[in-house]
Amino acid sequence: MTSSSAPSRKALSKIACNRLQKELAEWQLNPPSGFKHRVTDNLQKWVIDVIGAPGTLYANETYQLQVEFPEHYPMEAPQVIFVPPAPMHPHIYSNGHICLDILYDSWSPAMTVSSICISILSMLSSATVKQRPADNDRYVKNCHGRSPKETRWWFHDDKV
Amino acid sequence: MDSEDDMMDANDVESVDDDFYSGEMDADCYSDDYGDYDDDVDEDDDDDSGPDYDFMAEAADDSDVVAARSQLSYTVLKEEDIRQRQEDDITKVSTVLSIPREAACILLRRYNWSVSKVHDEWFADEEAVRKSVGLLDGPVVRFSDAELVCGICFDTLPRDRIASAACGHPFCKQCWSGYISTTINDGPGCLTLKCPDPSCQAAVGQDMVNALTSSEDREKYARYLRRSYIEDNRKTKWCPAPGCEYAVDFVAGGGNFDVACLCSYSFCWNCTEEAHRPVDCGTVEKWILKNSAESENMNWILANSKPCPKCKRPIEKNQGCMHMTCTPPCKFEFCWLCLGAWSDHGERTGGFYACNRYEAAKQEGVYDEAERRREMAKNSLEKYTHYYERWASNQSSRQKALSDLHQMQTVHLEKLSDIHCTPESQLKFITEAWLQIVECRRVLKWTYAYGYYLPEHEQAKRQFFEYLQGEAESGLERLHQCAEKELQQFLTAEGPSKEFDDFRTKLAGLTSVTKNYFENLVRALENGLADVDSHAACSKGTSAKVTGICKARATKGKGNGKSGGSSRNGDD
């Protein structure tokens, strides 16, 4: 849906390539638990399986994360979305956009794909109810396939 | 019309002293009340003058107010002054708290550049302040290795290519540069730069920015810092004139927000619109919105156009017959009056200039609703247009006067000084006259916004207001005339003359009288024409007559626009 219509990206800079190769190598040695990187030859776009943690609302469920890297990664944040169907969660929209500050304003180049994945899993695990954000329909309708990085996010709740 | 006599009483003094405030008039009850303005204040205070009371009491002591106003309550800062002040403040904090300049700078920014606030907070709870801005006491991580891994590119590098904030988290200089540069290009948020480590709050100050980035980024950062010094400080604002880079430091008090920048632009420090005494900031906001508002365009369209019956586009008919043809591609032909298809019209419906169908339907009341709406929109639009035109014409008059003033200063004064063997310093009265004209045009302009919002039902106030405004206009007209036309002959004169001395006396006199009148006018309007209320209460008996005076005055004066004063004198 939205993922395929994301704007075509500029090729990765040399710095970005180096860093991603290092991240990928580290991931293969030490994958974060609950995640599986689907091997492709595309360094600029990773697809990652997320397995719901045992004992949470999402236990035994599997979702797909898509991570796309901009030319100047890691100075700029990657674009991270769930490939629909996205998990039912108060901070995840049905088009796969995720309302999580580290993906936007609070991104730091010292973060990694692995640290993002851990944050997302912790966000899923702390949910107490499976439901969409209150403004889901309006937001998704107004998105028209734009990247979530163009949204002005309002991070209201850091508990879930 | 019995009011003519009263008008003459009030206006038959045809000298320079023909000034409403000079107390020379005796017949008109308004002028009595108003001319003795200062003496009456005590009585007025007994009336229920409500929120105006304070202002009245303040205005009572005339000399004090004037003194307060002539004292500047602001300072204009040039770029160099801004830099200097900022440096001084940083030095002050740095010295008193014994911390590095960068840290002092971070603290000042955090507390909106208030030195005293920084001191208060710091000495109340240094630890909390340090924590809130990320000023660490010492490193949180220490490494003794010769080589370190950069936390961004993950390369392993020798120590000399690694840098850290106070926390000690290692990042290579190239990554630092990219990180800082990205943040600077994101905007003024770079002033709260932190260590890239997500769990670390250590602040990154200007020293690191300067050490690790390009000169372009350093300059940008310094500019944001200077902007913050003006914009985050409650006592300072930028001059809003386009292209002007000065700022104004304002000291509160006095109730007067008018500020004149060194660039010669005058603005209101409170709302940063152009200077607008005697109207308040709220009225200015409404008026400006109105001038630009879609609603006025909509009103115009509603009042002057009808929608094409077929394609619904609004059509303005400004002349010609009733046979309308809509613009392509619609091209629908219809009758302007009944909006029916033209094919149904012809000789039998009244021809090109009438429509029997319309007349018949109108008799039955079919068009009433739409017509009435159109009529109402037209009336309110006319009122607005009346005030707007005069507001705008004073604005352009002011612009013209400004350029005349410039011409005077750059060309004519020298010439005059030559012809009349007078040093230019002795010709200041001419510059002063022109400066006064410029100021009067500004005040007069805003009286039209004032008039527009003066409630329709406050008849006595409206009449009094229009009287004052009319007097102001004719007074200014006289001054403008003298400074513009009467000066001409002296520019072409052959040598010094007695006439020039007379001219000097006249122009200086007119300048001072007009200045006085406008100052009083501004004060009267600013206190909401409060003395009209007390007057209305005490002289019900004469109010009918007064109404007569002012109506006659208003219609004649306003109808002729700026020449109101002189045409009235002609009538007399």
What's the short story on this structure?
The complex is a heterodimer of chains A (160) and B (572). Chain A is an alpha+beta fold and 160 residues long.
Q: Can you characterise this structure?
A:
Chain B: It holds the Pfam family IBR_1. Chain B: Residues 146-359, 150-196 form the RING-type domain. Chain B: Residues 360-387 form a coiled coil. Chain B: Residues 1-51 have a biased composition (Acidic residues). Chain A is of the alpha+beta class and 160 residues long. Chain A has helices at residues 14-29, 113-125, 136-143, and strands spanning 35-38, 45-51, 62-68, 79-83. Chain A has a single domain (3-148), classed as Ubiquitin Conjugating Enzyme, CATH 3.10.110. With 572 residues, chain B is mainly alpha-helical. Chain B has 4 domains: 3-35 and 376-571, Four Helix Bundle (Hemerythrin (Met), subunit A); 36-72, no CATH class; 86-231, Herpes Virus-1; 294-366, no CATH class. Residues 1-70 and 537-572 of chain B have low confidence and may be disordered. Chains A and B meet through helix 1 of A and helix 10 of B.
Name the descriptors.
heterodimer; A: 160 residues; alpha+beta; Ubiquitin Conjugating Enzyme; 4-stranded antiparallel beta sheet; 3 helices; 23% helix; B: 572 residues; mainly alpha; Four Helix Bundle (Hemerythrin (Met), subunit A); Herpes Virus-1; 4 domains; 3-stranded antiparallel beta sheet; two-stranded antiparallel ribbon; disordered N terminus; disordered C terminus; metal-binding (chain B); repeat (chain B)
